[in-house]
Amino acid sequence: MVEQVNLEIKRGDTWSRVIYFEDEDKVRKNITGWTIFFTIKVKADDLDTATTTIAKTVSPSNPLEGEAEISLTSTDTKDVGNYIFDIQVKTNLNEIITVLEGTITITQDITTRTS
What is the mean pLDDT of the chain? Predict the structure, then answer.
């Protein structure tokens, strides 16, 4: 079963999280050679290349310790709304595995100035 997470981010904020890949015994996996895909969409059947889709390809930040950092820029979070996302990996054995999915709600912020 794929883990489900619901996230809330303020409009225009930068956001990042380190995710950890572990085996069933909670031992961190060596993810050397893995590619991580982080995709945000309005609807699941939207194309990954749609203008409303955010599609990031991430390399592990610390592969021997099973770590990867997922980030969004303030441009990525500019539109208030409800979205769905998933994180898939392509392992060094060319396996495609969905490891996390859920919703992202981008809520209106109060402060909109940046200087």
Answer: 94
Percent of the chain predicted with pLDDT > 70: 100
Distance of CA 87 to the CA centre of its chain: 5
- The burial class, CB within 10 Å (0-12 / 13-18 / 19+), for 43 is exposed
Q: Which residues pair with 105 in a beta bridge?
A: 8, 82
Instruction: Classify strands 96-107 and 3-10 as parallel, antiparallel or unpaired.
Output: parallel
All domains in the chain, ordered by first residue: 3-107 (2.60.40.10)
Region 42-55: mean pLDDT is: 89
Q: Is the pLDDT of residue 85 over 90?
A: yes
CA angle 14, 19, 24 (to 5 degrees): 160
- Are 37 and 89 within 8 A, CB to CB? yes
Residues paired with 76 in a beta bridge: none
pTM for this entry: 0.89
Any idea what the Cα angle at residue 30 is, between residues 29 and 36, rounded to 5°?
90
